[in-house]
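Hi R.,

As promised on Friday, here is the backbone we talked about, encoded as C-alpha cells. Could you run it through your design pipeline when you get a chance and send me back a sequence?
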C-alpha cells in the first residue's frame, strides 16, 4: 500500500475512533484536526527515527502498551525540539482528543509494516533529510480538509522562479541582513523553505567565519509563514526544522537543543491578521482559488478589501493582501488563478488596485504550462508595493500553446522553459510563448489582456465599428434556472417510463452543451410549474410529477440561490424554479448561446423550449424586424466574433484537471459573460448573404438525423441511406456557407479590404472538413514540418494540400487569394486560426445511427403490453426473462429489422441481453449500494418518514440527507441512472439475487406504478423455491410498503401488508432480518487444486 493511501486510511480510522470513544460533543473540524494531528505526529517521529535524529525503542508487542509507547515517542521528540512546538500541549490538537488503545495499535503499524520481502515498509530514511514527500502528502492526507482549505501545493520549480523575480531582486537592492519574507498562504512550505535556503546561502557567503548555527538562526528569523490549516503549519515547521538541521550539518536533534532558532510559522487567517508584524521586504504566495462560503467571513473580507465585489474568488482579497503586507516598495509575487482578468468580479481589482495603487512589473501567462494538480488556468503576477509609474512598462509573457502531453518533468517541459526564456529575454517569441513590454495605461482597462501585437491590431480594428450589440437588444441574461437540474430534469424517456404525458407542464429544457452549430435542441425535459402568464401552478394538479419530486422536497426547499435566497425562505413553493422569466412580457425574438464552450455557438430559438442557466438568452425588442434576429445570429457565429469574445472572456482551460489536451488553444473552454457580449462592436450593415440559408439548414440538419428519421418511420437500411446522404449534403453546405460568412465579416469590419476574397454565392461548392482555406494552409505547413497540430486527427478529417479538382474555377481562384492573404496579412493570419474557426465537431452519422437504434429498441422494450398479463380477464404486472421478452419482441417485424441494423447477425435474444446490461437497476437497496450507500439510504428513509409526518401534522425539523457519490453504488451504471440524489432514471428493474446479473433472471419494467411493483415482488416471493430466494424479495417488498401506503389506497396497502406478513411467517423471517439482509459475498479466485 502506498504511504499516502495508508496515511489517508489511518486519518479516517482515527477520526472514527475519536467519534465513537467520545461522550462529549466535539465539532467535525476538531475531530478532523485531531485525527490528522495523531497521524502526522506518528509520521514525524517515524521520520526522525528512520533518519537517526532520535533514538527509539521498538514498538511493544504486548497489547495495551501501544498508546503509552506512542505518547512516549512524542515526548522524546519534544525533549529535543529546538523550537517548532510540534508536540506542545495547547498547540497540537492530538492532546485534546486522546485515541483508544486499539487505535494506537493501528498507528503503530507505521513502524511494524513490512513488505513482501520482509523489509521495513515505508522506509522514511531520506538523503539530505529531504521532506518533499510531505509536500505531496499535504494535499491528499485528509479529503475533508483538502476541500475545506483548498489544499494545493505550489511546485518547487514555480516557487523558485517567483523567488528569482522577488527575493533575489530584494537582496540585490537591500542586502540580506535584515530582510523579511512572508508567505501568507504557506501550505506545505515551499516558498518558506526556498527562501530559507537562499538566505542561509547568502549569510554563508557573507559571514563564513560565523558559527553555522547562528547563520541558520539569522536565516530563520527572515522567513515567515501563515496558514489557516493547522496541519499545513505543522508540516511547514517540520520541513523547516529538517532544512535547518541539514544546513548546519547536524545529524541528531539533541545537537541543536538550546539554539536560538525561531520558526515563525503560525495558524491564522492572514486576510484578517498578521502574527508577525508586517512590513515585509518580500511577500509571495499561491492563494486559494475558491469562493467564500462563510457569510460572516464574506462580510469581513468585503469590509477590509474594496476589490471584493460580486461573487468574487479568494484570489481578489489575497491579491490586495499580499501588497498590503509588503513594506513601501516591497516585492510581491504570486501564482494565482487568471479568472480575475476577465470575469466581472475582477474589474475593480484590475482598474483601480492594479491600475492605480500598486505597480505590476511582470504578468506571465502560465495557463498553458503543466503545473501538477492545477486544473485552473493560472498567471504569475510580480509587482512592487508602490504606485505605478507610467514610464515603467510591464513585461507580459503570452502563452501561444499549451503542453502537448503530460511531461515527465514539468520543470523541463517545453512551455515552462519557454516562459523562462521569454521572461529573461523580453521581445522574443517561439512556438510556445511570446514576450513584450506593455505600457501601464494599456493594463488599466478591464478585461485585462496580455496578447500579441497582431491580436491588439485586430481588436482595435473591430472596436472601431460604430454600433454595439447592446444597441439592438433588450436583455442578455438567464431565461430559467431550476436550482436543481439533477432532480428536475431527465431524458424524455424517463418521463415516458413513468407515464407522464408531454403536456403543457412538461417542457424541453436546453443546456449550453445542446447549443451547437446554429441549432438549439432539448435533450432533457422538466416539470415546469408555470402557466402561460408565468404564474406558478399547484403541483397537486399533477400527481405524477408530485410522486416523482416529493422524495426530494427537503432538498428542493433548501436549494441555495443567488437570486432571492432559498425557495423555502423566499415564500416560493418547494417545487418552484429559482428563476423563470416565462412568456409574459417576452416575445419570439430570442437567441440562445452556450455559456461555456470552446467556440461561439449561437442559435435562434424556433421551438417552445426553455433555455437553462448554461444557455443564456439574448432578447430583441418585440417590434424588431424578424430578419434582425437571423442577421445577429449569423454575425455572432462568425470567426471574428469568436476572436473578439475570447480576447475578453475567461478561459476555463481544459475539462477537469487536464492541462494538456492537444497543447493548442482551440480545445480550451471559455466563459462568455453577458457584460462582454453587450459591448460587441457591430457595423451599420448587419445583413449577411448567407444568414437565412444557414438558419434554415441548421433546422433541416436536425430533422435529417437518425433519431428524427426513426420518429417518422420504421427502421430500414434504405431509409437511413437516404437520410444520411441528405444529412451529409446539408452539413457540407453549412460548412461552405459558414466559411463565406467568416470572410464576409472580415470585410465588414475592415480587417480585409479586397473584395476578391469573397466568392459569388452561385459559385460556392459544398465543403468537407479540411477544405477551408486556413486548413489547406495548415496542411501544407504540416507536410513540410513547419506545424504540429492535432486539428485534423481530433476531428476525423484528412489534411488537404491541393485545391479539390471538382471545385468551380472561380471558387478555386478565391481560395488561392485567401491562402495568399493568410500568409501575407498578419491580421488575417491571426483570425484564420483553429481557435476561432468553427470546429463542426460531431460524433458522425454512424455513431448517431447506433444511438438512435438503441433508443428505438429500448423504447420498444418498454411497450406497456409486454409487461402485463391479461389472462383470466384481469390485468396483472408480470416480470419476464430476457429470453421471453425477446420472444415477444420478435413478433414485430420492425423490431427484427432494427435489431439487424443495430447488431448485424446477432440473435435477437443476445441483442436484447446486450441492451439490458447497463439499463437495469436492482429492486433492493442492498443490491444497489455499497455499505456507505446503504448508510446514506437509511438517512434518506428517515427524512421521508419525517416528511410524511409533516404532511399529516405540524412541521417538524428535518435535517438534509447526504448526497450520494459514485463510490456508494455497486456498479457505475447504477450511478449513471441515479446520480447524487438517487433519482430513478432507469428503464428496467433486475430481480436477480446478485443485483446486476440478468442472464436467466427475471427483469421488470420501471414504469410499473408502485402497487404493481409490490404485486410483482409478492408474486416472486410466493413462487420462490428456497428461503434464500425469498428473503431478499421480501426485503424489497418491505422497503416498498411506505410508498404503497403513501400513494395507494388503504385497501391496497393492507392487502400488501397482509401478503408480506403471511410470507414472513411462511419463510420464518423477521423485519429486522429483512432490513439487515445483504447479498452473499462473491467467491473470488480459482479453486484449490487437490493433489
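Update: got your reply. Pasting your designed sequence below so it's all in one thread:
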Amino acid at each position: 500500500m502506498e504511504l499516502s493511501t495508508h496515511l489517508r486510511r489511518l486519518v479516517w480510522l482515527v477520526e472514527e475512533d475519536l467519534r465513537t470513544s467520545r461522550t462529549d460533543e466535539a465539532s467535525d473540524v476538531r475531530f478532523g484536526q485531531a485525527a490528522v494531528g495523531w497521524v502526522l505526529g506518528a509520521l514525524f517521529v517515524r521520520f526522525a527515527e528512520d533518519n537517526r535524529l532520535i533514538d527509539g525503542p521498538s514498538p511493544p508487542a504486548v497489547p495495551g502498551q501501544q498508546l503509552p509507547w506512542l505518547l512516549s515517542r512524542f515526548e522524546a521528540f519534544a525533549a529535543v525540539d529546538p523550537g517548532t512546538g510540534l508536540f506542545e500541549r495547547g498547540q497540537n490538537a492530538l492532546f485534546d482528543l486522546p485515541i483508544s488503545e486499539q487505535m494506537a495499535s493501528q498507528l503503530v503499524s507505521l513502524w511494524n509494516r513490512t513488505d513482501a520481502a520482509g523489509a521495513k515498509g515505508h522506509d522514511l530514511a531520506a538523503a539530505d533529510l529531504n521532506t518533499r514527500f510531505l509536500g505531496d502528502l499535504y494535499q491528499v492526507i485528509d479529503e475533508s480538509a483538502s476541500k475545506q482549505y483548498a489544499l494545493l501545493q505550489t511546485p518547487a520549480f514555480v516557487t523558485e522562479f517567483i523567488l528569482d523575480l522577488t527575493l533575489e531582486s530584494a537582496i540585490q537592492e537591500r542586502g540580506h541582513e535584515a530582510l523579511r519574507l512572508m508567505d501568507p498562504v504557506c501550505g506545505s512550505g515551499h516558498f518558506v523553505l526556498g527562501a530559507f535556503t537562499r538566505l542561509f546561502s547568502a549569510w554563508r557567503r557573507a559571514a563564513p567565519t560565523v558559527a553555522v548555527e547562528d547563520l541558520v538562526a539569522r536565516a530563520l528569523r527572515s522567513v515567515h509563514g501563515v496558514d489557516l490549516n493547522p496541519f499545513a503549519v505543522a508540516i511547514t515547521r517540520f520541513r523547516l526544522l529538517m532544512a535547518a538541521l541539514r544546513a548546519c550539518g547536524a545529524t541528531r536533534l539533541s545537537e541543536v537543543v538550546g539554539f536560538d532558532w525561531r520558526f515563525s510559522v503560525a495558524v491564522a487567517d492572514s486576510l484578517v491578521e498578521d502574527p508577525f508584524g508586517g512590513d515585509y521586504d518580500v511577500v509571495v504566495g499561491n492563494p486559494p482559488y475558491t469562493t467564500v462560503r462563510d457569510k460572516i467571513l464574506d462580510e469581513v473580507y468585503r469590509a477590509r478589501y474594496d476589490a471584493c465585489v460580486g461573487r468574487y474568488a479568494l484570489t481578489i482579497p489575497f491579491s490586495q493582501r499580499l501588497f498590503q503586507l509588503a513594506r513601501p516598495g516591497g516585492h510581491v509575487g504570486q501564482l494565482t488563478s487568471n479568472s480575475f482578468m476577465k470575469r466581472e468580479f475582477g474589474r475593480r481589482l484590475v482598474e483601480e488596485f492594479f491600475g492605480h495603487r500598486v505597480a505590476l512589473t511582470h504578468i506571465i501567462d502560465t495557463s498553458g504550462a503543466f503545473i501538477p494538480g492545477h486544473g485552473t488556468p493560472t498567471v504569475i503576477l510580480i509587482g512592487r508595493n508602490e504606485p505605478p509609474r507610467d514610464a515603467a512598462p510591464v513585461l507580459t509573457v503570452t502563452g501561444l500553446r499549451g503542453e502537448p502531453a503530460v511531461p515527465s518533468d514539468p520543470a523541463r517541459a517545453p512551455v515552462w522553459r519557454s516562459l523562462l526564456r521569454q521572461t529573461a529575454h523580453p521581445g522574443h517569441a517561439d512556438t510556445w510563448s511570446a514576450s513584450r513590454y506593455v505600457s501601464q495605461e494599456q493594463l488599466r482597462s478591464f478585461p485585462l489582456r496580455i496578447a500579441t501585437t497582431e491580436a491588439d491590431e485586430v481588436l482595435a480594428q473591430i472596436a472601431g465599428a460604430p454600433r454595439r450589440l447592446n444597441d439592438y437588444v433588450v436583455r442578455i441574461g438567464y431565461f430559467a434556472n431550476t436550482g436543481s437540474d439533477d432532480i428536475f430534469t431527465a431524458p424524455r424517456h424517463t418521463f415516458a417510463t413513468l407515464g407522464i404525458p408531454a403536456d403543457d407542464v412538461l417542457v424541453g429544457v436546453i443546456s449550453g452543451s445542446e447549443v451547437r452549430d446554429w441549432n438549439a435542441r432539448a435533450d432533457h425535459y422538466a416539470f415546469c410549474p408555470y402557466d402561460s402568464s408565468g404564474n406558478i401552478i399547484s403541483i397537486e394538479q399533477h400527481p405524477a410529477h408530485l410522486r416523482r419530486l416529493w422524495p426530494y422536497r427537503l432538498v428542493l426547499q433548501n436549494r441555495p440561490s443567488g437570486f432571492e435566497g432559498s425557495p423555502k425562505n423566499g415564500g416560493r413553493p418547494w417545487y418552484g424554479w429559482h428563476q423563470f422569466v416565462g412568456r409574459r412580457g417576452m416575445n419570439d425574438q430570442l437567441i440562445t448561446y452556450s455559456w461555456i464552450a470552446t467556440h461561439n455557438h449561437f442559435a435562434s430559438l424556433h421551438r417552445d423550449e426553455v433555455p437553462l442557466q448554461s444557455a443564456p438568452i439574448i432578447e430583441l425588442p418585440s417590434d424588431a424586424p424578424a430578419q434582425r434576429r437571423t442577421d445577429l445570429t449569423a454575425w455572432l457565429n462568425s470567426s471574428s466574433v469568436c476572436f473578439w469574445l475570447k480576447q475578453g472572456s475567461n478561459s476555463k482551460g481544459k475539462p477537469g484537471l487536464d492541462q494538456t489536451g492537444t497543447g493548442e488553444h482551440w480545445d480550451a473552454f471559455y466563459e462568455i459573460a453577458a457584460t462582454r457580449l453587450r459591448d460587441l462592436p457591430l457595423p451599420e450593415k448587419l445583413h449577411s448573404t448567407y444568414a437565412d440559408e444557414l438558419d434554415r439548414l441548421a433546422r433541416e440538419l436536425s430533422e435529417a438525423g437518425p433519431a428524427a428519421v426513426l420518429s417518422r418511420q420504421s427502421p430500414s437500411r434504405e431509409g437511413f441511406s437516404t437520410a444520411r446522404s441528405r444529412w451529409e449534403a446539408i452539413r457540407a453546405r453549412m460548412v461552405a456557407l459558414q466559411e463565406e460568412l467568416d470572410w464576409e465579416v472580415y470585410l465588414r469590419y475592415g480587417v480585409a479590404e479586397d473584395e476578391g476574397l469573397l466568392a459569388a454565392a452561385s459559385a460556392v461548392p459544398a465543403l468537407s472538413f479540411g477544405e477551408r482555406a486556413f486548413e489547406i494552409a495548415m496542411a501544407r505547413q504540416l507536410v513540410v514540418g513547419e506545424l504540429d497540430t492535432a486539428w485534423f486527427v481530433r476531428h476525423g478529417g484528412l489534411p488537404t494540400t491541393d485545391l479539390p479538382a471538382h471545385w468551380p474555377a472561380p471558387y478555386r481562384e478565391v481560395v488561392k487569394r485567401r491562402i495568399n492573404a493568410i500568409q501575407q496579412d498578419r491580421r488575417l493570419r491571426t483570425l484564420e486560426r483553429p481557435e476561432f474557426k468553427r470546429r463542426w465537431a460531431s460524433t458522425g452519422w454512424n455513431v448517431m445511427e447506433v444511438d438512435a437504434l438503441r433508443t428505438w429498441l429500448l423504447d420498444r422494450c418498454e411497450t406497456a403490453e409486454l409487461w402485463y398479463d391479461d389472462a383470466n380477464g384481469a390485468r396483472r404486472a408480470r416480470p419476464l426473462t430476457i429470453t421471453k421478452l425477446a420472444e415477444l419482441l420478435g413478433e414485430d417485424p420492425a423490431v427484427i429489422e432494427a435489431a439487424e441494423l443495430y447488431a448485424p447477425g446477432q440473435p435477437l435474444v443476445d441483442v436484447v441481453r446486450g441492451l439490458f446490461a447497463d439499463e437495469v437497476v436492482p429492486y433492493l437497496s442492498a443490491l444497489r449500494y455499497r455499505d456507505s450507500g446503504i448508510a446514506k439510504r437509511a438517512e434518506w428513509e428517515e427524512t421521508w418518514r419525517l416528511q410524511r409526518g409533516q404532511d399529516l401534522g405540524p412541521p417538524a425539523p428535518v435535517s438534509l440527507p447526504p448526497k450520494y457519490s459514485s463510490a456508494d453504488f455497486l456498479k457505475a451504471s447504477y450511478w449513471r441512472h441515479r446520480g447524487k440524489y438517487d433519482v430513478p432514471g432507469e428503464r428496467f428493474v433486475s430481480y436477480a439475487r446478485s443485483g446486476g446479473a440478468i442472464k436467466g433472471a427475471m427483469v421488470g419494467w420501471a414504469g410499473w406504478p408502485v402497487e404493481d411493483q409490490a404485486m410483482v415482488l409478492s408474486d416472486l416471493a410466493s413462487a420462490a423455491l428456497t428461503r434464500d430466494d425469498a428473503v431478499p424479495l421480501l426485503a424489497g417488498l418491505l422497503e416498498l410498503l411506505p410508498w404503497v401506503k403513501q400513494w395507494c389506497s388503504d385497501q391496497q396497502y393492507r392487502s400488501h401488508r397482509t401478503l408480506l406478513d403471511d410470507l414472513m411467517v411462511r419463510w420464518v423471517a423477521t423485519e429486522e432480518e429483512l432490513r439487515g439482509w445483504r447479498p452473499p459475498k462473491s467467491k473470488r479466485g480459482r479453486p484449490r487444486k487437490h493433489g
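One thing I noticed while checking it: The chain has 43 helices and 32 strands.

Thanks again,
M.
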